Amino acid sequence: MEFALLVLILASIATTTAAQAKPGCNSTCGELNIPYPFGTTDGCYRDKNFLITCSSTSRNPIANYSRGNIQVLNISLDGEIRISAWRANQCYLPSGNRSSGDNVNFRLEQFTISNTKNKFTVIGCDTYAFIDDYWGDRFSTGCTATCRNITDVVNGTCFGIGCCQTSFPTGVRGYNISLKSYRNHTAVWDFNPCSYGFVVEDGYFNFSSLDLKDLRNKNDFPVVINWAIGNETCQKARRNATSYACKDNSFCVDSENASGYLCKCKDGFSGNPYLSGSNGCQDIDECKTLRPCNGTCHNLFGSYNCSCPLGYKGDGFRNSTGCTLVDHSKQQFPYKDVALGAGLGFAALLVIILWLYLALQQRKLINLKERFFRQNGGFILQQQLSRQERTFSETAKIFTAEELKNATKNYDEDLIIGRGGFGIVYKGLLADNRVVAIKKSKIVDQSQIEQFINEVVVLSQINHRNVVKLLGCCLETEVPLLVYEFVNNGTLFDYIHGESEASDISWTTRLRIAAETAGALSYLHSAASTPIIHRDVKTANILLDESYTAKVSDFGASRLVPIDQTEFATMVQGTLGYLDPEYMLTSQLTEKSDVYSFGVVLAELLTGRKALLFNKPEEERSLAMCFLSYFKENRLFEVTESGIVDEGNIETVKEVARLATRCLKLKGEDRPSMKEVGMELEGLRRTEKHPWVSMNSNLEESEYLLHDMSGAYEAGDSSVNTAYDSMKDNILTALDNGR
Ligand SMILES: *[C@@H]1O[C@H](CO)[C@@H](O)[C@H](O)[C@H]1NC(C)=O
Ligand SMILES: *[C@@H]1O[C@H](CO)[C@@H](O)[C@H](O)[C@H]1NC(C)=O
Ligand SMILES: *[C@@H]1O[C@H](CO)[C@@H](O)[C@H](O)[C@H]1NC(C)=O
Ligand SMILES: *[C@@H]1O[C@H](CO)[C@@H](O)[C@H](O)[C@H]1NC(C)=O
Ligand SMILES: *[C@@H]1O[C@H](CO)[C@@H](O)[C@H](O)[C@H]1NC(C)=O
Ligand SMILES: *[C@@H]1O[C@H](CO)[C@@H](O)[C@H](O)[C@H]1NC(C)=O
Ligand SMILES: *[C@@H]1O[C@H](CO)[C@@H](O)[C@H](O)[C@H]1NC(C)=O
Ligand SMILES: *[C@@H]1O[C@H](CO)[C@@H](O)[C@H](O)[C@H]1NC(C)=O
Ligand SMILES: *[C@@H]1O[C@H](CO)[C@@H](O)[C@H](O)[C@H]1NC(C)=O
Ligand SMILES: *[C@@H]1O[C@H](CO)[C@@H](O)[C@H](O)[C@H]1NC(C)=O
Ligand SMILES: *[C@@H]1O[C@H](CO)[C@@H](O)[C@H](O)[C@H]1NC(C)=O
Ligand SMILES: *[C@@H]1O[C@H](CO)[C@@H](O)[C@H](O)[C@H]1NC(C)=O
Description:
The chain is built from 21 helices and 37 strands. By secondary structure, the protein is an alpha+beta fold. Strands 3-4-5-6-17-10 form a 6-stranded antiparallel β-sheet, with no helix packed on it. Strands 26-30-31-29-28-27 form a 6-stranded mixed β-sheet. The two termini are 33 Å apart. Residues 240, 242-243 line the site of one 2-acetamido-2-deoxy-beta-D-glucopyranose. Residues 411-693 form the Protein kinase domain. GO terms for molecular function: ATP binding; calcium ion binding; polysaccharide binding; protein serine/threonine kinase activity.
């Protein structure tokens, strides 16, 4: 399960740079990012008020807001767009006659000009100017700028000498600017031949005396516009679910400056609130972005919390108390008081006490390590090792806490590749450059330590190419750490159900993966000296490496089966949709439970559907049930994934489907053993590989192959078998010791 999470997290990192346009739409025009509800082509914008036209006639593409034909500089989902607006100017001749000038009449159809973020600005030494409502007399305001002598002008100020600024009311959607002069600039013409007037984003324009002489190279200025959805309040808009714009994990706010409303992501979420799905508001992994914890960070849906490991105190938050070692020695050495009470003369004493204190601290740490080692069953393991030195050291290793700390850069949160019910998984780099996955388990129940140790020893002996290898463990830390081989190419679940690679996993590959998985499980059931029941067989627990070789992972739930018992009662554990119904009823765990789960995996490989579908009607919800009924009604090819069946493999597909139905039999004893399943799949695979083998010689061929198969087990993995024989003693002694 942890490994599955690992891969999911790796995949999601790649898509965090959010292109916030509607999926399938162009999100940029030149350097401008265009988030939905805005868009450039049909179907990409919410309504015509959000249409941006992108024309690339000049060198750089220009985005114009279609309603008003004004250039857009920037679009923000906070309800603002920045546009470019022209200035008005009026120039004079020395005689006082007008030479040239441009008026400005600016209007928007729908949105409003922000009155808090913009200023009406006028430049001139003989100037007064007005800004009026475009459509009539809703408002009119203006200011006067004069100066007698250029030396009076102060750079950077705009209070009436050469420059003046004023605000205008809310709700303005268009304005006309008119420039006037008292004396037609005759007295100031030498240093100020023109008057200028424009609306500009507050803080953008920095007045300088040079602007009086010439503002010619500043023709347009950025202006902030407020946009909103529709012209209704949130309360009214919510009533119509089809037109309501705010999607998953978002909320609605009434626009302050315009009519209409805006949507925002809820706290702890980020993304585009106007979209649903993966571009919409997504949970922020605060553990990664904020790194708020000094202890362990837990990302929750919409929030997070911190905690400290056992043996530490504090709330775990970095900006608060953090995590500190619980330290009883502190009370015995109140060195701070000593230092205060006794002045400088005692400084030496202080140093000694401090030194003692640190030494004690050091010893405590060593003691703690030792205690953990003992607690985690280190001595049991050591004992076993001293008796069976060879077998363990060849296959697995006891790592020191220091080694693993270095491998994970002191458990850097950036190296976390998975979290799950059983603990946290880090990616680590060992000193010998091996990449490994390091699993930090949840607190281990002391009563199960012995079993845990046995499991570690047995699992470390498993040397099967289709089982994720346990490389070793570390027992010096509070919770045991397990070191596994690193498998990097995702889970089978991702490959079957992932959006992008949906069905490009061919039938041949599917069949091979099925055969490999069955082989691994069969090995666990029978080849190992102590049968191991996996208990959580599912596609998410089948990892794939670069060459798509299956590797069965996560024995977190598996318990070894005592040799003298074929079934035993345990707490029902596993994943819904894969759980053996017989096991659920009786709590009697047998190897056949894994066979059932594997049957569901086969059905999943055949149909491409998930094991449980919550959005389907009751009778289609469970893939196992649904698959059985389709098969029974001879409608198999209605549920098989499109694209995998062709003339060449139709018979094999049928065979695999029949095998799946046998695995899914309600009664465990009716199901085939994992060994039979594995051989049958391997046989089918080889026939598929050699399609020239005609149907009539088929029987012979598979018989030959079956023989071949069992031979391979004996010969190829003989080293494992010997290892297992010695292991058997090992475990038996361990069990004896426990009693
Ligand atoms: C998106 O628009 C830009 C600018 O118009 C253009 O260069 C680019 O090719 C477009 N991309 C797609 C995928 O249409
Ligand atoms: C875009 O807007 C600018 C400024 O308003 C205008 O000069 C230009 O003609 C417009 N371009 C197009 C293609 O409409
Ligand atoms: C758009 O606005 C953002 C934030 O205000 C700013 O960082 C960015 O530089 C702006 N882009 C343009 C092209 O003005
Ligand atoms: C100024 O304008 C008036 C009338 O518009 C014209 O008669 C006069 O010649 C102009 N003076 C100059 C210097 O152009
Ligand atoms: C503003 O300018 C436009 C276009 O020239 C004009 O139709 C409108 O009447 C003007 N408004 C005012 C109040 O002068
Ligand atoms: C402008 O001020 C300077 C210094 O204050 C003075 O020398 C100059 O004569 C003044 N010019 C005018 C036109 O008053
Ligand atoms: C300024 O020019 C306008 C027309 O161009 C004219 O009517 C007015 O008399 C002039 N005023 C001065 C003080 O020259
Ligand atoms: C204002 O700044 C410009 C340079 O930006 C400088 O040339 C000019 O002399 C300054 N004017 C005043 C009045 O300080
Ligand atoms: C609100 O918008 C709708 C359509 O966009 C329009 O028909 C209606 O008149 C507007 N109402 C107000 C009060 O502006
Ligand atoms: C809800 O909005 C949709 C889309 O804008 C519109 O077609 C429909 O008439 C609206 N329904 C009501 C009850 O206003
Ligand atoms: C610590 O930071 C978090 C998030 O920035 C904040 O919510 C919390 O109030 C802070 N706590 C203290 C004690 O400053
Ligand atoms: C964080 O924890 C470490 C030990 O785990 C401790 O040395 C350090 O002082 C802590 N930092 C804060 C800010 O609590």
